[in-house]
C-alpha cells in the first residue's frame, strides 16, 4: 500500500503533462484582395446596417425576429447544453465526495447457539479522486469548451442569416408592392383606354379590331395583378414565421421608393477570419478534434485513483457516533491496459482522421467565405450597372410611348404601334422595379457574407428575451467578442 501511495504522489507531482498535439491554426492561402474593391469604410461592417435603410418598421421587425424566432431560441438552448457539458467534463478534475447511511436487521440460526437477531447501523463519508496525470480530463474539457464556443458561433450564424433573411424578405415585399402599384396603374390606364375606344367604336371612329387589341392588352395587365398579390401573400406568411409569429399580413411603413440605400462595406480578406461566425465555428470544431487526439492517446496509460472512507458502524443506533464505533480506510489503485486487440490504436487513428477532416472543413469554410464575399460584391456592382442601363432604357421607352401616341393623334400611325410602345414601357417599368430590388438585396448579401461586429450587437438583443447569457454563465460573456485565434490559443495554453 505504501508503494502505491508513493507512486500516486509521484505521479501527482507530474500532473499537468498532457498528450496530444497542441493546436495551431492551419495555413490558409488567402487572396490579396477581392475582385471588386469598394473603397468604403470597413467600420460599416460592424454597424447595425439594417438601420441605414431608414425604415423604422424594418428595425422593429429585426428586433422582433431576434427575440422570437424559433431557430435563434433553439441555437440558444444548444449553447446552454454545451455549457453544461463543459461543467460535466471539468468535474472530473476534482475529488468526488459522497455519503452513505444504512440501517439493517438480520436473523440467523447457528447450531449450538440458537437463533440470534443482529442490528447494524452505518454512516460514512466517501471520497474518490481519479488523478488526471496524463491530461485526459484536461483534453476532454478542452474539447468540450471548443464545442461550446462552436455552438456560440453557430448561434451567431443563425442570427446573421436571420437578420439578412428578414431584411431581404422585407425589401422584396416592398418591391412587390411597387410592382403591384405599376400593374394596377397600367390596368387602370388600359381600362380607361378601352372605355374610350368602345365609345369611338360606337361612333364609327375605330374598328372592332382595334377595340379587341386594346381589350387584350388590358386582360394581359390584369393577369399580373393576382400573380403579384399571390407572391405578396406567400412572402408575408414566410416573413411572419421568421418573426416567430403565425402567418398573416405584414405592416409596411413606406413604399419601396423611399428606402435609403446604404454604402457598401469594405474589408481585407484576412479580416474575414475574425468576422464570420461560420469560420470561427469551424475552427473551434478543429480545436475540439485536435484535443480528442490527446484524449485517445491517454488510453495507453494507467488510470490512477485514490479512494477514502470515514464513518461509524454500530449494532446500536444510540452508540453509532461513539468514538469506539469509527471506521476508516483508504486505497490507491492503478488500472491499465495490456492487450485490447487494437482498440486503442484504432481509436487514435479514428480521432486523427477526424482531426484531418476538421482541417479540411475549416479550409473549405474559409474558401467558401471568400467566394461568397466575392460573389456578393460582384452581384452588387453588376446589379447597379444593370439598374443604370435599365433606367436609360425606361427613359427611352417613355419617349417612344409619348411620340407614338402623338403620331397616332396626328394620324401617322395605327394604334397598334401605340399599344406596342405601351407594352414595352410596362415591361420595362416592371423590370426596372425588380432590378432596383436586386440592388438592395445584393447589398444585404454583402453585409451577410462579410459578417462583422454587428452580429454581436444583434445577439445582445436576442439575449434580452431568452436569457442565454445569464444562464450559460461567464463563458459565453467572455467569449462573445473574442477572435477565434485568441480563444484557441487560450484553450491550448491553458490546458
Written overview of the protein:
With 495 residues, the chain is of the alpha+beta class. It has one domain (15-97, 136-305, 345-494): Outer membrane efflux proteins (OEP) (Up-down Bundle), CATH 1.20.1600. 63% of the residues lie in helices and 11% in strands. The protein contains 13 helices and four strands. The protein has a four-stranded antiparallel β-sheet. Helix 3 packs antiparallel against helix 4 (136-202), helix 4 packs across helix 10 and helix 7 (277-297) runs antiparallel to helix 8 (343-409). It is elongated, with a radius of gyration of 36 Å. 33% of the residues are buried. The model is unreliable at 1-5, 7-16 and 465-495 (pLDDT under 50).
Q: What descriptive keywords fit this protein?
A:
single chain; 495 residues; alpha+beta; Outer membrane efflux proteins (OEP); four-stranded antiparallel sheet; 11% strand; disordered N terminus
Describe the secondary-structure layout.
Layout: H1 2-13, H2 56-68, H3 70-90, E1 96-110, E2 114-131, H4 136-202, H5 208-242, H6 272-275, H7 277-297, E3 303-314, E4 326-335, H8 343-409, H9 415-450, H10 454-466, H11 468-472, H12 474-479, H13 484-494
Helix pairs in contact: 2-4, 2-10, 3-4, 4-5, 4-7, 4-9, 4-10, 5-9, 7-8, 7-13, 8-9
Task: Please sum up the structure shown.
This protein is α+β, with helices and mostly antiparallel strands. It has helices at 2-13, 56-68, 70-90, 136-202, 208-242, 272-275, 277-297, 343-409, 415-450, 454-466, 468-472, 474-479, 484-494, and strands at 96-110, 114-131, 303-314, 326-335.
Amino acid at each position: 500500500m505504501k508503494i502505491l501511495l508513493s507512486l500516486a504522489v509521484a505521479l501527482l507531482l507530474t500532473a499537468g503533462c498532457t498528450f496530444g498535439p497542441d493546436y495551431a491554426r492551419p495555413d490558409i492561402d488567402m487572396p490579396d484582395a477581392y475582385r471588386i474593391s469598394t473603397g468604403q469604410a470597413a467600420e460599416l461592417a460592424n454597424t447595425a446596417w439594417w438601420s441605414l435603410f431608414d425604415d423604422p418598421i424594418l428595425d422593429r421587425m429585426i428586433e422582433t425576429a431576434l427575440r422570437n424566432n424559433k431557430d435563434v431560441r433553439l441555437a440558444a438552448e444548444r449553447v446552454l447544453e454545451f455549457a453544461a457539458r463543459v461543467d460535466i467534463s471539468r468535474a472530473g478534475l476534482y475529488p468526488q465526495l459522497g455519503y452513505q447511511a444504512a440501517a439493517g436487521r438480520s436473523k440467523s440460526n447457528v447450531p449450538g447457539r440458537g437463533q440470534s437477531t443482529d442490528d447494524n447501523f452505518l454512516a460514512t463519508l466517501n471520497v474518490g479522486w481519479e488523478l488526471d496525470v496524463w491530461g485526459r480530463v484536461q483534453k476532454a474539457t478542452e474539447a468540450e469548451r471548443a464545442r461550446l464556443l462552436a455552438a456560440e458561433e453557430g448561434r451567431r450564424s443563425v442570427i446573421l442569416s436571420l437578420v439578412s433573411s428578414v431584411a431581404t424578405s422585407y425589401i422584396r415585399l416592398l418591391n412587390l408592392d411597387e410592382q403591384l402599384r405599376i400593374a394596377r396603374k397600367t390596368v387602370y390606364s388600359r381600362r380607361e383606354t378601352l372605355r374610350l375606344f368602345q365609345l369611338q367604336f360606337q361612333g364609327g371612329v375605330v374598328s372592332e379590331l382595334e377595340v379587341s387589341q386594346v381589350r387584350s392588352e388590358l386582360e394581359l395587365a390584369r393577369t399580373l395583378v393576382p400573380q403579384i398579390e399571390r407572391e405578396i401573400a406567400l412572402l408575408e406568411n414566410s416573413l411572419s414565421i421568421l418573426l416567430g409569429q403565425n402567418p398573416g399580413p405584414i405592416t409596411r411603413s413606406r413604399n419601396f421608393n423611399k428606402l435609403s440605400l446604404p454604402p457598401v462595406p469594405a474589408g481585407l480578406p484576412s479580416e474575414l477570419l475574425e468576422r464570420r461566425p461560420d469560420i470561427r465555428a469551424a475552427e473551434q470544431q478543429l480545436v475540439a478534434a485536435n484535443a480528442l487526439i490527446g484524449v485517445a492517446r491517454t488510453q495507453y496509460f494507467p488510470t490512477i485513483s485514490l479512494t477514502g472512507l470515514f464513518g461509524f458502524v454500530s449494532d446500536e443506533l444510540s452508540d453509532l457516533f461513539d468514538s469506539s464505533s469509527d471506521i476508516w480506510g483508504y486505497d490507491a489503485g492503478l488500472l491499465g491496459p495490456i492487450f485490447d486487440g487494437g482498440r486503442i490504436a484504432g481509436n487514435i487513428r479514428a480521432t486523427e482522421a477526424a482531426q484531418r477532416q476538421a482541417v479540411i472543413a475549416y479550409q473549405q469554410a474559409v474558401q467558401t467565405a471568400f467566394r461568397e464575399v466575392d460573389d456578393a460584391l460582384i452581384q452588387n456592382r453588376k446589379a447597379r450597372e444593370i439598374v443604370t442601363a435599365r433606367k436609360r432604357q425606361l427613359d427611352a421607352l417613355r419617349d417612344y410611348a409619348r411620340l407614338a401616341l402623338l403620331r397616332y393623334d396626328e394620324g401617322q400611325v395605327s394604334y397598334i404601334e401605340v399599344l406596342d410602345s405601351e407594352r414595352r414601357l410596362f415591361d420595362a417599368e416592371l423590370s426596372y422595379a425588380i432590378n432596383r430590388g436586386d440592388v438592395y438585396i445584393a447589398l444585404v448579401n454583402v453585409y451577410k457574407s462579410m459578417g462583422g461586429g454587428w452580429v454581436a450587437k444583434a445577439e445582445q438583443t436576442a439575449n434580452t428575451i431568452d436569457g442565454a447569457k445569464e444562464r450559460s454563465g461567464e463563458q459565453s460573456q467572455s467569449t462573445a467578442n473574442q477572435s477565434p485565434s485568441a480563444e484557441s490559443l487560450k484553450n491550448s495554453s491553458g490546458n
